[in-house]
Design a protein that fits this description.
Layout lengths: L4 E12 L2 E12 L3 E6 L5 H9 L6 E6 L2 E2 L2 H4 L2 E4 L11 H11 L4 H14 L15 H13 L5 E5 L7 H16 L4 E4 L3 H7 L2 E6 L2 E6 L1 H6 L3 E6 L14 E7 L2 E6 L6 H8 L6 E5 L3 H10 L3
Parallel strand pairs: 3-8, 3-9, 6-7, 7-8
Antiparallel strand pairs: 1-2, 1-4, 4-5, 9-10, 11-13, 11-14, 12-13
Helix pairs in contact: 3-4
């Protein structure tokens, strides 16, 4: 039985002059789910996240949490990481995190405990008494992440959280996000690092021109992409597969051909045509990566 979404974006629209940033955008995120929100530059990801957090008002539509329209009180339980830095540059790391936890209603002792916990988890102990402006960009990003987590939020909305992080920090953050999801927290994050999105996320939504154009697990997204065959027939002449029914050539170079097999088409005529040219060194089905799926969807005409 499918799990109901706890965070719902329902027919949300937002226009900036002639630009329609969100166009009746609709999707939901379930409790305990890592949801990857991806799209090209200017697709509407950041605008959507700002609307969810109440930073920007929608022109139309509604955002709901557990079936109820979001208000300021509910949004206080959200953790948000903006794409741009949102920190006080002259404030020390520990003082900043304690202050932010207190703003969310924590007492001073609990605020200190939470701040120290996230400083340790995110590898910031040696910088706890440094001003944020004196940190590297990567360490500033770690502090920004701690700021999103320090008040133990019920929802996480993260805009490019992996930006500027080294591989070790990426692995630490990935583990933290999975831990938070395992406690039932819905986690929404955008990223241009599609290999990370593919590895981490339970479901993925692809936005283009303010609309959700594909949404599901990677396997569900692959299901609509057709089958790709890789054939290495070194003696094959150009156009060797042109007359095979249900096949289109995507790319061919140095005897290695990538073909798209139409839904329901048989791959055996392709193999027969390849063998007719001489030896076949490879004949395999290729599972498209999220990057390939993304390019197919975003590059398609509306």
């Amino acid at each position: 039985m499918p799990v109901a979404a706890v965070l719902e974006i329902d027919r949300v629209s937002k226009r900036y002059g002639d630009v329609l940033a969100c166009d009746h955008l609709t999707f939901g995120v379930r409790g305990g789910e890592l949801f990857g929100f991806v799209g090209g530059n200017g697709a509407g990801k950041t605008t959507t996240m700002r609307i969810v957090l109440g930073v920007t008002a929608a022109d139309a539509g509604e955002v709901r949490w557990n079936g109820v329209a979001l208000d300021h009180s509910a949004r206080r339980r959200f953790g948000y990481l903006p794409e741009e830095r949102g920190l006080y540059p002259r404030m020390k790391v520990l003082d900043q995190l304690v202050y932010l936890a207190e703003l969310h209603g924590f007492g001073v002792n609990e605020a200190h405990r939470n701040a120290e916990t996230w400083i340790a988890r995110l590898g910031l102990r040696e910088h706890r008494d440094d001003e944020v402006q004196k940190l590297s960009l990567g360490n500033q990003q770690r502090v920004q992440l701690a700021a999103a987590l320090v008040h133990e939020p019920d929802v996480l909305v993260l805009d490019e959280p992996f930006s500027g992080l080294d591989p070790i920090a990426v692995d630490v953050l990935a583990a933290i996000l999975r831990e938070r999801a395992d406690t039932g927290v819905p986690v929404v994050f955008s990223s241009h690092q599609l290999d990370l999105v593919e590895r981490l996320c339970d479901r993925i939504g692809i936005i283009r021109d303010g609309r959700m154009v594909a949404c599901g697990t990677v396997d569900e997204l692959r299901a609509g992409s057709g089958t790709t065959l890789i054939v290495h027939a070194p003696a094959a002449a150009a156009g060797w597969a042109d007359d095979v029914e249900g096949v289109s050539v995507v790319e061919s170079q140095d005897g290695r051909t990538r073909l798209r097999l139409a839904d329901g088409a048989d791959d055996q005529p392709v193999l027969a045509a390849a063998l007719a040219t001489g030896p076949v060194h490879e004949f395999s089905r290729h599972r498209p990566s999220l990057t390939e799926l993304f390019c197919d969807v975003v590059g398609a005409q509306p």
